[in-house]
Amino acid sequence: MHSIEIKIDPRTKLIIALCLTSMAVIVQDLGLRFVLVFISWFFSIYFQSNLSSLLKKGKTFLRIFLALMVIQSIFSPSGKVLLQWGDFEIITTGGLLKGLRFLTLMTIIIIAANIMITVNNREMIQGLIQLKIPYELAFMVSIAIRFLPMFADEIKQILMAIQLRGIEINKISLFKKVKIFLYIFLPLIAGMILKAQRLSMAMETRAFRAYPKRTSFYVLEMKKNDYCLIGIMSILTLSILTIYFI
Amino acid sequence: MTYIHLENIEFYYSPEKIIFKNISLQLKSGEFTVMMGLNGCGKTTLGKLMVGILQPVLGHIYIGGQGIEKYNLSQIGIRIGYLFQNPEQQLFTTTVEEELAFPMRFRGEEKSKIITETDKMLELFMLTKYRHQSPWNLSRGEKKRLAMASILINRPKYLILDEPNSGLDTISKNNLKNIFKKLKEQGIGILLITHDSKFIEKEIDQLITVKGGQLIAQH
Question: Are A33 and A104 in contact (CB under 8 A)?
Answer without folding.
Answer: yes
